[in-house]
Design brief:
Elements: E1 5-10, H1 16-27, E2 30-33, H2 34-42, H3 46-53, H4 55-69, E3 75-78, H5 87-94, E4 97-103, H6 106-114, H7 129-144, E5 148-151, H8 157-169
Parallel strand pairs: 1-3, 1-4, 2-3, 4-5
Bound molecules: shikimate-3-phosphate.
Pathway: Metabolic intermediate biosynthesis; chorismate biosynthesis; chorismate from D-erythrose 4-phosphate and phosphoenolpyruvate: step 5/7
Enzyme class: transferase
Pfam families: SKI (PF01202)
Length: 170
């Protein structure tokens, strides 16, 4: 039996990687984080890629990663916050399994991201973080709404992983 992938999308800081790791462990699946994969392969951080090559080059790396992972199964895939909003990426990965979109309030996202010192988010740099998050969320709202949403506000990663597991198995 092929094991359908679980693809996690949603805004930065909604817990895709933290929850994805727990979920992969519970299912005995391999965990893959698209940002991580890109960083290991390029030997650069996401912030360095944005600075040195620009956002368009980063988005092309994401597309390549989506095409590659779209040929695999038995994975829990945490995707960068915009990756699944690209229709070609969503098609490539969506055919391999189930997609869930994690949600959180801007306030909670700020709190989570500030505790995540190693993962600088170039798109949130400069200005008031809440304002930037609200603006970007508004732009992306319709895109995220295409996927099944899971609210993570006020919940532990373990509780969210449990809900995802139930949703995946039903
Ligand atoms: C981005 C999200 C980031 C990373 C990059 C761009 C976005 O990933 O891919 O900074 O456009 O939402 P996370 O969602 O894992 O933070």
């Amino acid at each position: 039996m092929t094991k359908a992938n679980i693809i996690l999308t949603g805004f930065m800081g909604t817990g895709k990687s933290t929850v994805g790791k727990l979920l992969a462990k519970a299912l005995g699946y391999r965990f893959v984080d698209t940002d991580e994969l890109i960083q290991v392969r390029t030997g650069r951080t996401i912030a360095e890629i944005f600075n040195e090559k620009g956002e368009a080059a980063f988005r092309e790396m994401e597309a390549e990663t989506a095409r590659e992972l779209g040929r695999k199964s038995g994975l829990v895939i945490s995707t960068g916050g915009r990756l699944m909003l690209d229709p070609d990426n969503a098609a490539a990965l969506g055919e391999t399994g189930r997609i869930f979109c994690l949600k959180a309030t801007p306030e909670e996202i700020v709190a989570r991201i500030s505790g995540d010192a190693g993962a600088e988010r170039p798109l949130l740099k400069g200005g008031d973080p809440i304002e930037r998050i609200v603006g970007l969320m508004r732009e992306r709202e319709a895109g995220y709404a295409r996927f099944r949403g899971i609210d993570t506000s006020g919940q532990t990663p373990e509780a969210v992983a449990k809900r995802l597991l139930e949703a995946y198995q039903t």
